[in-house]
Amino acid sequence: MDFYKFLSQNSLYVVLFVVLIIWAGIYSYLFRLDRRLRRAEDQVEKHHHER
């Protein structure tokens, strides 16, 4: 029961923590997507120069 009491008394911190986790996930997804896109662009540019 102490855990539920902690959650009810510190609900703002719980919400902030959850939002922080969500933003970290979005950031990591966009970072990985940017890296993959950059690699694909480099491959297209390399293939274009070979022609």
Question: What does this protein look like?
Answer:
This protein is an all-alpha fold. It has one domain. The chain is built from 2 helices and no strands. The termini are far apart.
Considering the chains and any ligands shown, give keywords for the structure.
0% strand
SSE order and pairing:
Blueprint: H1 2-9, H2 11-50
- Major sheet: size, sense and barrel closure? none
Shape: rod-shaped
Percent helix among the residues? over 70%
- What is the radius of gyration computed over CA atoms, rounded to a whole number of angstroms? 21 Å
Uncertain stretches: none
The portion of residues forming beta strands comes to: under 5%
Alpha-beta classification: mainly alpha
* Strand and helix order: HH
Tally of helical runs? 2
Average pLDDT, rounded to a whole number, is: 94
Q: Termini, distance in Å?
A: 69 Å
Q: Number of DSSP strands?
A: 0
Integer tally of domains? 1
Quick structural summary:
With 51 residues, the chain is mostly helical. The protein has helices spanning 2-9, 11-50.
